[in-house]
Amino acid sequence: MSTPTILRPLTMRGLTARNRLWLPPMCTYSVDARDGVVTDWHVLHYASRAQGAFGTVIVEATAIAPNGRLSPFDLGLWDDSQVAGHRRIVEAVHAAGSLAGVQLGHGGRKAGTPPWRPDAAAGARTATLDGWDLVGPSAVAYPQHAEPRALRADEVRAVTADFAAAARRAAEAGYDVVELHGAHGYLIHEFLSPLSNTRTDEFGGSPEGRRRFTLQTAAAVREAVGGETVLGIRLSATDWAEGGLTGEDTAELAPQLVAAGVDVLHISTGGNVPAQVPVGPGYQVPFAAQVRRAVAGSTTPGGGRPVVVTVGVITEAAQAEQIVGTEQADAVAVGRPALREPYLPVRWAHDLGVDDWRQAGLPIQYWRGAWG
Questions:
Q1: pLDDT of 328 above 90
Q2: Would you tell me which of 55, 214, 289, 344 could form a disulfide with 19, CB atoms 3.0–4.6 Å apart?
């Protein structure tokens, strides 16, 4: 049989992932020392998913500044001392055959919350920790969080510089992919949305103004990482709320991001305001397809076609194969199922009829345990 589409190689800016299945960034809140430094747990966690044959593994949201952490227990790349730990993750992921990426982010008005834990007290991640330097584009609070301090224009530019500095550290650590976190109600998303950005200066007041921080940051990061690193951005295509971002807004922004140096558009939705979200199988795929159409005629500065990644309640091999096979997206990110099943790509290969375990990505040491 022919190779399933999701198992075919994917080339991005000259780098080739062995397949089109991504491990998306998922916060684990596991830096107990609160210093942003990678631990053994992180190395094992990401290496196991690479061993499980994901083509591209993206490390969880990693803060560009201490006050940009979503919780005190987040990873960081705001200091040179944090590079060595990330290099350990990269080396382990590469050794298992996957491309290694990291998501760089700033939590904005949603930063500084208690980490999610199954046994945490009621209300975890619904309030701001006392004393946290909470900032945003405007002094508009996320519900049940503290009111953020509106960044001055010079501070906005300083945050762009922080993103670029963290990206340089990511490149130094050896990451193949650097992804900007522009989704789920964090700082970049906050600037893009009129529901959280009420500024009237150069960084607000119109769609062009609200996009300026994002586009300037993408351009600065592209310059910082050079021409070989793949640059991606995760976007919430819609706020699912009246007066907020729409799929049309994001489709209009997408080619501008490509022109600024972005190679990969990783499309999610929501998170900026409480909303009624119609969650269901593949519910975000239409937004990825809309973005893919919007950039169909674009060429990245690296000379390739932009790659669009979709995510969200994609839980079956046939579902993922249909999405990529019908060109609604170039790749599929599989999050929560991969938390319980690190070798999910291998099982999906089996589900699609692949019995060549080398093709599926199963390490030779485990072939005796493969399906008969």
A1: yes
A2: 55
